[in-house]
Amino acid sequence: MRTAKQEKDAVMRAMVEAKGLAYPPPAILLRAFKKEGALELWGASSEAGPYVLLKTYGICATSGVLGPKRRFGDEQVPEGFYDLDFFNPQSNFFLSMHTNYPNAADRILGFRQNLGGTIYLHGNCASIGCIPITDDGIKEVYWLSVLVRDGGAKRLPIQIFPARMNDRGLRELAKTHLGQSELVAFWTTLKEGFDSFEKGHRLAAVKVDKDGRYEFVQQ
User: Fold this and answer.
1) CA distance 210 to 57
2) What pTM value is reported for the model?
3) Residues 40-80: pLDDT tens digits?
């Protein structure tokens, strides 16, 4: 982490302040797109937003196929709405941040005997269900996340999508997954969250109903 601070603090300060935000910003949001292999870093002056895009990182390795993680050992990268809930500065993958998979929706929809876990955003370029963005990339995201957390942020949200969930993106997913109506219905719910943010780059509160379906309420 000392290396990340030494190499990236000035870089991240310049990046954030160029977008008109205080450094460190009070809130950040991460959005991952599996098909495109991209991780977006957004910042805002409050948790609700509006958010501005700070940088896009390449996801340099992946595992599994498009679709959510439903059980231990399926090698899937989760899909849904999560938080980064703890930091690992002594990771085997340089630096890493843990996602709170399984979330409430996963516990309803997944294989209840063993859902798996230990899903991280990390450095290096290897993945068994995780999101790697290279050592250089994780230095930036990790260091800024530490500053935002230490500044009092209650959450560090990360949204993970199978693809960019605009109308075209969902149509293409439905076309390549014919006969998988349950999966397409799940993705349609994810699109609601994607669309909610795209309208004004504001972050909605995310809830989960009794059937494991996401619900979005603008703050």
Assistant:
1) 35
2) 0.96
3) 999 999 999 999 999 999 999 999 999 999 999 899 999 99
Active-site annotation holds for 130: yes
Helix axes 167-176, 181-200, angle to 10 degrees: 170
Q: How many angstroms separate the CA atoms of 71 and 110, rounded? A: 6
d(CA 196, CA 54): 19
Give residue-wise pLDDT tens across range 105-163: 999 999 888 998 899 999 999 998 999 999 999 999 999 999 999 999 999 999 999 99
Catalytic hit among 60, 122, 125, 201:
122
Q: How far apart are CA 110 and CA 106, in angstroms?
A: 5
The residue type of 78 is: P
Is 122 annotated as catalytic? Answer: yes
Any residues with CB less than 8 A from the CB of 175 and at least 6 apart, and which? none
CA distances for 137 relative to 49, 56, 92, 169, 199, angstroms: 24, 10, 15, 26, 28
Q: What is the dihedral angle through the alpha carbons of 143, 145, 148, 149, rounded to the nearest 10 degrees?
A: -110
Cα 118–chain centre separation: 14
Catalytic residue among 60, 98, 130, 201: 130
Alpha carbon distance 52, 62 (integer Å): 27
